[in-house]
Amino acid sequence: MEHWFDALSRPTTRRTALKGAAVAVLGIGLGLPALRPSTAQAAESEPCFAPCIQASTREWDTAYAGCLQLKRAGTVNFAAAVLGAAPLVILSFLQNVAAVSCGSSAELDWHRASLACRGSECGNGAKYPGGTVPVPPKPKPKCDPIDEIACGDTCCYTFNKCCPDASAPGGYACWAADHTC
Predict the structure, then answer these.
(1) For the segment 17-55, what is each residue's pLDDT rounded down to a tens digit?
(2) Which of 109, 128, 145, 170 is deepest in the core (most CB within 10 A)?
(3) Where are the domains of the chain?
(4) Phi and psi for 132 in degrees, rounded to 5?
């Protein structure tokens, strides 16, 4: 009985080298997604989560009701085709295909919308109740480009120094040039 080291010492052909490389690439390709870090998700206890899920479910219900109308029309045309109107067979087939496509698109949209409820969009109080309304950034001050420099929410003269200051309204304050920040 030979040891497995003996099999490694035999000369290899290009075919066995390619097979080994293909197996290695396949193994890496299948194992790599397991090493990917998971994404952050919003908690289901957030006040905006339930309204967001309900809104996505209402959208799905509305879209799926339209798909059911297509399916009913296809069924009626199929029944008419069976009773003797042969050209309606193609029309009923196309309507049934459209109904199935519509249903799968509606379900995919619902899945995407419900996954978005776990993200940061759920926290938007303008869209869902209970979320936090994002504070729009303040516009930068319009300073005279020759005599002034922008310093947080205010303008400083060019001979002054702009320093961080927690007690100032914009977080920055104008100081004399000899001041150390």
Answers:
(1) 888 889 889 888 888 877 777 766 556 666 677 788 888
(2) 128
(3) 49-123, 137-181
(4) -95, 140
